[in-house]
Design brief:
- By secondary structure, this protein is an all-beta fold.
- 0% of the residues lie in helices and 48% in strands.
- Strands 2, 4, 5, 6, 9, 10 and 11 form a seven-stranded mixed beta sheet that branches.
- It is globular, with a radius of gyration of 13 Å.
């Protein structure tokens, strides 16, 4: 059973940067495809970024493309989300997610992932 624990959230100002981390246990980060989602109050959980299990291909929501970078360190069994030039609309609880056998057409669907972390709050003030 894969377990995910996020960290690194906080309160920052517009234009600042944050790096979220996600520790993977009960499995190896290299054995699953991984992603980040976020959920703002009163809104549905939305896709942020995805990193394929093989090949290292990355995919991003249009709203974060060019500002956020997803990566993983297999030696540390960890997943990261580097967030630069943060905006107030990035305020949300951020979740890391993982799964095996996630087809490309399903990477933006929360239901396509088997494992979820508990979330970490990111607040961007204007």
């Amino acid at each position: 059973q894969v377990q995910l624990v996020e960290s690194g959230g906080g309160v920052v100002q517009t234009g600042d940067s944050l790096r979220l981390s996600c520790a993977v246990s009960g499995g190896t980060s290299s054995s699953v495809a991984v992603g980040w989602f976020r959920q703002a109050p009163g809104k549905d959980r939305e896709f942020v970024a995805h990193l394929r299990r093989y090949g290292g291909h990355t995919y991003y929501a249009d709203s974060v493309k060019g500002r956020f970078t997803i990566s993983r360190d297999n030696a540390k069994n960890a997943l990261y989300l580097q967030m630069d030039n943060l905006k107030p609309e990035d305020t949300a609880v951020y979740y890391c997610a993982a799964g095996s056998g996630i087809i490309l057409s399903n990477i933006r669907n929360p239901g396509g992932y088997n494992y979820w972390g508990q979330g970490t709050q990111v607040t961007v003030s204007s």
